[in-house]
Write a structure and sequence with these properties.
By secondary structure, the protein is α+β, with helices and mostly antiparallel strands. The protein has 4 helices and 8 strands; from the N terminus they run E-E-E-E-H-H-E-E-H-E-E-H. The chain has a single domain (12-147), classed as 3-Layer(aba) Sandwich (Chemotaxis protein chec).
Length: 149
């Protein structure tokens, strides 16, 4: 039986990133201990950062291994997944330091948005997050209709 996550990342929070690329994680998403570790990786197609605890990072690796992709594609995907991932840990103020290249790829500077994603969360540029709202709303409406939500 799969273990339930200890933290459910939910909600949307606007934040400011400082010049050193530090940003405060929403307090409700933290364990309260300094040094909480997260794995950060740019989403391969959608222009935001995926941030996850080790348990979710391991689950994503397993999902790649379990996918119907050809073995060579799985190896390349795992290589890319681990090659792109960087770890970060919270400081005393609950901030994480983001990688410069990740910020460039996701268009992050100044005002950003944290978006809950269940077992992981996302970090978006404020403009990209706003631009993606119609697609997110359409997707939820479609799935709600399909599932009787």
């Amino acid at each position: 039986m799969e273990q339930e996550p200890t933290t459910l990342f939910s909600g949307t929070f606007e934040r400011s990133m400082d010049a050193k690329k530090r940003v405060a994680v929403p307090a409700s998403w933290l364990s309260g201990e300094e040094g909480q570790t997260f794995y950060v990786i740019p989403h391969p197609t959608e222009g935001y950062l995926m941030v996850m605890p080790l348990s979710e990072f391991n689950r994503q690796e397993q999902a790649i291994k379990d996918s119907p992709a050809a073995p060579a594609d799985k190896r390349r995907a795992i290589r890319q997944f681990f090659g792109e991932a960087h770890t970060t840990a919270t400081d005393k103020q609950g901030r994480i330091l983001l990688n410069e290249k990740h910020c460039e790829r996701a268009g992050l500077s100044g005002e950003i948005v944290f978006g809950g994603g269940g077992r992981r969360f996302e970090i978006w540029s404020r403009d990209r997050h706003a631009a993606s709202e119609p697609e997110r709303n359409d997707a939820l409406a479609l799935v709600a209709e399909m599932t009787g939500m």
